Amino acid sequence: MAFLSGAAARRTLLAALGAGVLSSRWPAAEAAGPTGLDDPVKKDLAMRLVSSAENSSLDWEAQYAYIEDIGDGRGYTAGIIGFCSGTSDMLALVELYTERVPGNPLARYLPALRAVDGTDSHDGLDPDFPAAWREAAKTAQFRTAQRDERDRGYFDPAVARAKKDGLGTLGQFVYFDAMVMHGPGEEALSFGAIRDRARKDAHTPADGGDQTAYLHAFLDARVRAMKQEAAHSDVSRVETAQRLFLTAGNLDLVTPLKWKVYGDGYEIG
Fold this sequence. Notes:
Elements: H1 6-14, H2 40-54, E1 67-69, E2 76-78, E3 83-84, H3 89-100, H4 110-116, H5 129-136, H6 140-164, H7 169-182, H8 191-201, H9 211-226, H10 236-247, E4 257-261, E5 264-268
Antiparallel strand pairs: 1-2, 2-3, 4-5
Helix pairs in contact: 3-6, 6-7, 8-9, 9-10
């Protein structure tokens, strides 16, 4: 989903407003560590939250075969995390898959994916690329490659950065979701720039700041970035989801959760 371009970026990528929270009393926030999003249950919860925004569904495991052009200037969007043909991450995924499974249904599209990287073009992809994607998604190897690329490009760096900043489970998810949408780079609307702006307004816990105050500053900075892109100008995935959890003091993402994204309501018990 995030916007990156070029081989260097690909390799860097690898290295309630009607909604509410069902309870307003939560245990004290956990220390950042292996019980945060590294917990498989919490990681699954994070993916369900992301999927509600990316796919309007909590069933993230049903999204391996998903592919369409949603008209956001990033070409085809596909798979469990919204890999895009125009933002390098789809190319990185298909390269990884082809390293593991030469001759797979997507391998012949690698030249076209390299050519359209950084654009919204379908040149060399239409009309059969979506069908090839869906065919590949029937295989365990491609599903595994999607999960691995998600972890390398988004999940692992987001959680690692959040832990260094002293953030618990909610903060780790906030970073993860921001990386998915904005990319992990340092460009003006990227995760790195959003974090830099937030740190001008509040200290991270690792720097002696208050976790809640810092996360509000981060979400404020992210909302400002989102409003600068027409495709991301609806900020409900922040304001009627993450901000609700934060305002309720649910720094550990304890269920049950209730939120809205793009006007649709979701609940996890």
